[in-house]
Structures are given as structure tokens and as C-alpha cells.
Design brief:
Blueprint lengths: L1 H14 L3 H5 L2 H21 L9 E3 L9 H8 L8 E5 L33 H10 L5 E4 L13 H15 L4 E6 L7 H14 L4 E5 L19 H11 L3 E5 L14 H7 L4 E5 L19 H10 L8 E4 L3 H5 L3 H15 L4 E2 L11 H9 E3 L1 H7 L6 H15 L15 H7 L12 H11 L1 H4 L1
Parallel strand pairs: 2-3, 3-4, 4-5, 5-6, 6-7, 7-8, 8-9
Antiparallel strand pairs: 1-10
Helix pairs in contact: 1-3, 3-4, 5-6, 7-8, 9-10, 10-12
């Protein structure tokens, strides 16, 4: 942060710009990435235990901080690019005012709206995702809340889709149907799915196997609700053959483990499984694949043990996972490399968990500029993160698995987004803690294992 601040002040002065003008432009985004790369390089040189070269690098050249055209090409996707964000969320308390506050611990809750619930509205989501980023299509996905406690109902998703249609004039928003087979009687839960599928045009089903009660797709645990096989069979009957499931990001909770993905995918080849977060856990340092490892390694092993080959019916999604590891190029290289080997470059999906963290443009810019180094490619067998592979991950793979016949590649609104960000005082803002105390409080909340 200190390096980026100094670099921004110096570069803004050289350009004759105000600090605000600099920070809300593509050169401001470039300055953040240049500072991240420099700090990563210095940390590696200062650590005597590090014996290998870097696993990942950002290709934003230092000169980009004073060359706007170079910064734009380094941090923004070319015009006409397809970017499908398969995991987005909104919270609509107008439709469900009695729902308790959800998302208060996420950075977007500090958007200065006064009431944190106003930070996640469909209007803010459209602005942050479509106006302030390179995203061209998005999927609204359910959260782990049901009934009166749910501020993201299917009606809220439809409202978000309608707002995007009104503003953009096209169907660039898809929605998922929420399913909760472990809540109440399984027959009633399946009937509810049938009703939702009849009344809404769905792209997939969304489930949380660790909430509220805990279950597995393959019903391997006799002490857990035996609802997995019945749920998957019903999905096949309803004709929306895509299941998105939260796996990982649960402090190691057993029902959030992806161990059931391989067996379920092997038994149900007609279904596509979108593994949200790819089994990643924030507390796990990702490295070379370990068959007894945690985090992403659990997904890799589950597929290997079940003989689910790359390019089959399992897709690894990057929501929150990429945002977490992009600050550590070695971890980022290991996560992307392991997933590309395990599921294939046709089966890794772009997702950001927007709008929990504000605009996803910082994540997009970092991914656009990221490369897996030749050393890690040779040492671990990871594929190069080429432009072709990035295009697949950012949109082409999602278009295929979600059956998007005519992908939308134009920005919305149809203005030059770089120009919009230059005049918007909120552009490129990363919401979250600012003061020393806020940073410490957030760290304690998000790293409880460190503070024990």
C-alpha cells in the first residue's frame, strides 16, 4: 500500500493529473499491479528459504504508470471480449424487508450508503459489474439463506435481470434456481424445484451442501441426510442439467469438502458440476499437489480417484479464490496450474463473487496480466496461461456449459468504459478497511486461526 501510494503520487505529478484523476484511471490500476509485483519480488529475494524462481508474474510494465494507452491495454480486456462472470450476488431488501442483514462482513458493506443493506442492491450491482468493469455477461447465484431469511430470492434475481435488460437492451444476465434438499421433507424440496423450473428460465441449480444441515451428493455418509442421489436424479428429470455447488471457503467444514464431486460426476455423466471456489480454503497455503492436502487438492484428488478426466463434466470456478490468491503470485500459479491439469482448460470458469468486494475490475485486471512462469511450467507440468486459455476461462467455457447461443461481447452501457471511469469518482475504488484499526479488525475476523 505504501509503495502504491508513493508511486501514484509521483506518477500523477509527472502526468500533471490530480491524485484522484490518476487513481480512478487505468494507470492507477496499473500502479497497484506494478507495486504488487515489486513487493512480491522483494519478499522473495529477502527470504533465504526460497530456492525457486517466482511461480507467477504480472506483465504490466513499470512504464504503464505514466502511459495511459499502455496501462489500458495491460489492465483492461480488448473491446469485443467475452467475459461471463458465473457467480454474482445481489441483496434486495425491498422485496424481502424482514430478512436479516447479510453480507455485513464483506468489503462492499462499507460503501458509505449509511445502511449496509443498501450497498448490495440490484442498482449498485449493475453499476459495479457492468458499468465499472469489463464484464459482459453475469449469472446471479443464490446464497445460503432460505425462506424469510433470504434477501436473494428468485424474484430478486428476476428483478436484477429485468433491470439489466432495461439498461442494456439485451439478455446479458442469467439466473440460477436455488435448491435446499436438506431442508424439510425431501419430497417438498423437490416439488419446490419443479415449480421454480416451470416459472423461470434457469441456467443452473445452486446448492450449499454444508448449509444448513449438511449433506453429500454421493450419500457416502450414513449419518448425513440421504438426499444427494434423489436431488441429482430430479435435476436430470427437470432438464436444467447444470449444478453449481459451493465447495470450500468454510474453514474446513466437512460437508463443504469436494470429496463427493468425483463420485457424483462419475455416476451422473449427463450433468455438469460447477464447483464454486474449487474447494479453496483461505487458511490453506496452496502449493504443489499433495494427495493428502487440503484446499484445492481435495477436488483434484476426488476427480482422480473417481477417474473423472480433464474435459469431462466437472468445472472449477474461481470466485473469491482468485481474489484471494492474486496477491501471492506463487499460490496463484499453483491454484490455476493444478485446476488446468485436473479439469482441463475447457473447464475452468471465471467468477468473482461480485458484489461482495465491489467492482470486479481489479480481479479482471490482475488475471489479464498474470502468467505462470516457464520455471513452474517445467517443474510442475503446468500449462502456460496463454491468451487463448484466458479467453476460455473468462467466457468461452461458461458460454458452452451454460448453453449461451449468442454470447454478448459489447460493454453496457455502450460507452467507452475507460472514459467513464476517468470521470467517475467511485471508479476503481476497492471498498473495505482504510484506517489502521479497521485493517487490524478485519484481519482478526478473517484470520482467526492466526490469532488463537
Amino acid at each position: 500500500m505504501r509503495r502504491a501510494r508513493v508511486l501514484s503520487d509521483e506518477s500523477a505529478a509527472r502526468l500533471g493529473w490530480s491524485r484522484r484523476q490518476f487513481l480512478t484511471s487505468s494507470v492507477g490500476m496499473a500502479a497497484g499491479i506494478v507495486a504488487l509485483q515489486a513487493c512480491s519480488d522483494e519478499a522473495r529475494r529477502a527470504d533465504p528459504t526460497v530456492t525457486t524462481g517466482p511461480g507467477g508474474t504480472f506483465t504490466v510494465p513499470p512504464s504503464a504508470v505514466t502511459e495511459p494507452s499502455l496501462a489500458t491495454s495491460s489492465t483492461q480486456l480488448p473491446a469485443g471480449s467475452l467475459l461471463v462472470d458465473v457467480q454474482n450476488h445481489v441483496l434486495d431488501y425491498e422485496l424481502n424487508p424482514q430478512a436479516p442483514t447479510f453480507g455485513g462482513s464483506f468489503p462492499q458493506a462499507s460503501c458509505d450508503a449509511g445502511d449496509p443493506r443498501l450497498c448490495f442492491t440490484p442498482e449498485r450491482w449493475i453499476d459495479l459489474v457492468f458499468r465499472q468493469s469489463d464484464t459482459t455477461m453475469a449469472v446471479l447465484s443464490a446464497i445460503p439463506a432460505v425462506g424469510d431469511a433470504n434477501p436473494l430470492t428468485i424474484e430478486a434475481m428476476e428483478r436484477g435481470r429485468e433491470m439489466a435488460l432495461e439498461m442494456c437492451g439485451d439478455a446479458r444476465v442469467l439466473i440460477q434456481g436455488q435448491a435446499a434438499p436438506d431442508v424439510g421433507r425431501i419430497d417438498a424440496a423437490l416439488d419446490a424445484m419443479t415449480a421454480v423450473a416451470a416459472d423461470h428460465q434457469l441456467s443452473a441449480w445452486k446448492v450449499y451442501t454444508h448449509s444448513p444441515n449438511g449433506w453429500f451428493f454421493d450419500d457416502h455418509d450414513p449419518d448425513a441426510p440421504q438426499v444427494g442421489e434423489r436431488f441429482l436424479a430430479h435435476v436430470e428429470e427437470l432438464g436444467v442439467p447444470v449444478v453449481a455447488v459451493h465447495k470450500g471457503l468454510a474453514n474446513g467444514a466437512q460437508f463443504a469438502s469436494p470429496r463427493d464431486i468425483g463420485p457424483a460426476a462419475q455416476r451422473h455423466p449427463a450433468l455438469s458440476f460447477l464447483v464454486y471456489h474449487s474447494g479453496f480454503e483461505v487458511a490453506v497455503a496452496e502449493g504443489e499437489f499433495d494427495p493428502d492436502g487440503k484446499g484445492v487438492d481435495r477436488l483434484v484428488r476426488s476427480l482422480s480417484d473417481a477417474n473423472v478426466a480433464p474435459g469431462a463434466n466437472v468445472y472449477a470456478e474461481l470466485g473469491t479464490t482468485w481474489r484471494t490468491v492474486m496477491r501471492d503470485p506463487d499460490q496463484a500459479a499453483h491454484v490455476l496450474g493444478k485446476l488446468l491439469l485436473a479439469v482441463g482448460d475447457d473447464n475452468v470458469l471465471w467468477g468473482t463473487d461480485s458484489i461482495w468486494y465491489g467492482s470486479p475490475q481489479d480481479q479482471i485486471a490482475a488475471f489479464h496480466a498474470f502468467e505462470i512462469t516457464p520455471e513452474f511450467q517445467e517443474r510442475y507440468g503446468y500449462p502456460a496461461l496463454t491468451g487463448e486459455r484466458k479467453a476460455k476461462i473468462l467466457g468461452l467455457n461458461a458460454a458452452r456449459v451454460l448453453g449461451i447461443a449468442a454470447p454478448i461481447t459489447t460493454a453496457c452501457p455502450p460507452d467507452v468504459q475507460a472514459g467513464l471511469r476517468m470521470v467517475d469518482s467511485l471508479a476503481n475504488v476497492a471498498p473495505g478497511p482504510v484506517s489502521r484499526r479497521e485493517v487490524f479488525t478485519t484481519f482478526v475476523r478473517e484470520h482467526p486461526w492466526v490469532m488463537r
